[in-house]
Design a protein that fits this description.
Helix content is 54%, strand content 4%. It is mainly alpha-helical. A 3-stranded antiparallel β-sheet has the order 1-2-3, with helices on one face. A hairpin with a 2-residue loop joins β1 and β2.
Length: 379
Amino acid sequence: MKEDIYGHEKRYKSWKAHVIENGEDGLSENNSKLLLKYIFDMEVGANVSIKSKKGARSYHRLNALRQKVCQVLKNLQERGINDIRKITDKEIQGFFDDMRKGVIKTHRGGKYKSTGDYVKAFKSFWHWYMKINSANNKNIKDLTEYLDSSQEEKPIWVYLDENQISQLIKKASSKYSALLEFQFDSGARVTEAFSLRGRDVYEEKGIVFCNISDEIAKSSGRKIKLILSGKNIIQYKKENNIGDDDLLFQLSSFYINRYIGELAKELFGDGISKGGEKYSKLTLYDFRHNSCCYWLPRYKTESALMYRFGWKTSKYIHYYSEFLGMKDTIRNEDLYVDITKTELENEIEKLKKESKKYSSMASEIKKLREAVAKVVAQS
């Protein structure tokens, strides 16, 4: 079972109990009723778009949807749109354009950095609204067709090079060092790591494996080798008497994130890392980013790397390749493809011919030396 380390279920159920009694705070009656009907449908997987994933949404997803759609509705109400059902395509287009440009501010007065995520949430909401109306033979126009859901800014995170990672793990308390070493090696998502049981890390024929099952994986399960941390994790299990059914890491992600952020600041200062974020903001999830940077140049194929990190598409590989400055750096000696195979074979044949030529010359020189030596001996 996947551990709910961030309390998504508790937060969702608390919100649900409140809104059933009082409605969504800050929304008009019409908007509130529509939002709640949408979220409760998503909770059980009802009326989802034919293009969307089937089944009930996770508590994490439900919280994200309700927060983003609610924020969009509140901001639209400030523009005088108190019933989302009456909005026009020009109004919604203009709204998201202003959000992207920074005209519409966050509650802290800053610019939204992930407008694309709000667009995606609203698209999901509007397609649901179209679907429930089509069931009643009412055709609703798709206002989201031309909305831009691309991300305008790349995420910022804390980048640490291999030397810094080593320093941090060595300096860290023994209480946390095994987890940090595991995170850098495995590249597992934080929820995956905290859902692992003792039986999920084991040794076979001198190789330590980690089994991230489908049950706890975000996308797909996988069995990976712990090349860097394996022996230490096996030792960690023994020292802490971790049984097969025990959680592998019985720690609090909140306190660990605070601890490693302070430790990173102590070791590297509070400047900005190459990833764009301050060292003091280091979190466990940053270890997944750094693990990707470590393993990317070491894996021979994209599919193998995608398997290790549980990715379904290669877009992340392209992002980290660009981040590391690895684009278009392939050399002829790095990869022998068909187009170079003939060239190599021709070069080898040429060398063979030259070798035979030199071998023949060496034989003639040897005979000449022998003849000269014979003449000298007779004189």
